[in-house]
Design brief:
By secondary structure, this protein is of the alpha+beta class. It has one domain. The chain is built from five helices and three strands, in the order αββααααβ. It has a three-stranded antiparallel beta sheet with strand order 2-1-3, covered by helices on one side. A hairpin with a 2-residue loop joins strand 1 and strand 2. The longest helix has 14 residues, at 38-51.
Length: 109
């Protein structure tokens, strides 16, 4: 299944202007709900709804959702930072590594 097909099944994020990801009170990333990153907002929002945070299990599912873009991110590190972040979590030495779990903050529109 292609990313665009999977994306169409995810909940709407029209009510959000952005998603912030933090680790131990340190802001790691802010993903704006705008063209070019709106798909990632939908992915991270769906993962947050299911898992409550971006942990090892959420990151694995996120990589499945990104579908063909995950392969591209592996081949070209740095090209897809929102996927690279999930890859970093999934390749951690221990899935229980608390430092690699990200807290999600939803920023209303």
């Amino acid at each position: 299944m292609l990313f665009s097909d999977i994306l169409a099944t995810l909940p709407s994020t029209d009510h959000l202007s952005a998603i912030e990801l933090s680790n131990q009170d340190k802001l790691i990333a802010r993903i704006e709900n705008k063209p070019g990153s709106a798909g990632s907002v939908r992915v991270y929002h769906a993962l947050f709804q299911e898992f409550g945070e971006i942990n090892h299990a959420a990151a694995n599912k996120g990589l499945e959702i990104y579908a063909e873009h995950t392969k591209d991110a592996i081949a070209f590190p740095g090209k897809h930072p929102n996927i690279d972040r999930l890859l970093e979590i999934t390749t951690a030495a221990s899935p229980a590594d608390a430092e690699l779990s990200l807290v999600v903050k939803l920023i209303p529109a």
